[in-house]
Amino acid sequence: VSAPGVTVHVVPAVHVAVTSSPSSVADEGQAIGFQAAVSGGVAPFTYHWSGLPAGCVDSGQATVDCIASGAGPLNVRVDVVDGYSVHTAGAIAFWVYPAPTVTVAAAETTLEAGGILALTATVEGGSGTYSMVWTGLPTDCPTQNSTFLSCRPTETGGFTVIANATDSPGL
């Protein structure tokens, strides 16, 4: 006598990979997202996020989207439990930098037409390299991607010059 057959399904073990957008760094005030990509295991899956930047909360979902409001190094972790109560975890190192700030100084705030206008921008915070755009300049002073700008304006009048810096994470 033989017993009736039994069908057995073997599924791959549950694993999770954590990614972020932007990748690994952001500035305070910048939109960020963390994603958990689950493979194997059996649905449904539950998610618990920890180590998130200030301003971000555990969504209980595979993704967390938020605006970071605190600076510092982080180890963002997600714990995943599958439908058979099998646990796995993944993490990503992430750094939130203080938002960049810019101050502008002029060597001379009053000068004659044709004199040398020398401006310096000082950037603090942010990360990586900076891209600079100057606005409010006299028409004959072209903007430069530099923290120092020098020209000889011939246009007369009052000008409010602003330096805008964008760092590597894009803020």
List keywords for this structure.
171 residues, mainly beta, 4-stranded mixed β-sheet, 3-stranded antiparallel β-sheet, 0% helix
Structure description:
- The protein has 171 residues and is mostly beta strands.
- Helix content is 0%, strand content 46%.
- It has no helices and twelve strands.
pLDDT below 50 for ≥5 consecutive residues: which ranges? none
Largest sheet: number of strands, sense, barrel closure: 4 strands, mixed
Rg, Cα atoms, Å = 27 Å
**Proportion of β residues?**
over 45%
Distance between the termini: 75 Å
* Strand order in space, largest sheet: 2-7-6-4
Helix content, binned percent: under 10%
Specify the structural class.
mainly beta
With helices defined by DSSP (H or I, 4 residues minimum), what is the helix count?
0
Q: Which sequence of SSEs, written as H and E, runs from N to C?
A: EEEEEEEEEEEE
Q: Give the rounded overall mean pLDDT.
A: 94
The number of E-state strands comes to 12
Overall 3D geometry?
Answer: rod-shaped
Itemize the secondary structure elements and their pairings.
Elements: E1 15-21, E2 25-27, E3 31-39, E4 46-50, E5 63-67, E6 72-81, E7 87-97, E8 101-106, E9 117-124, E10 131-135, E11 148-151, E12 162-166
Parallel strand pairs: 2-7
Antiparallel strand pairs: 1-3, 3-5, 4-6, 6-7, 8-9, 9-11, 10-12
Describe this structure in a few short sentences:
With 171 residues, the protein is mostly beta strands. It has no helices and twelve strands.
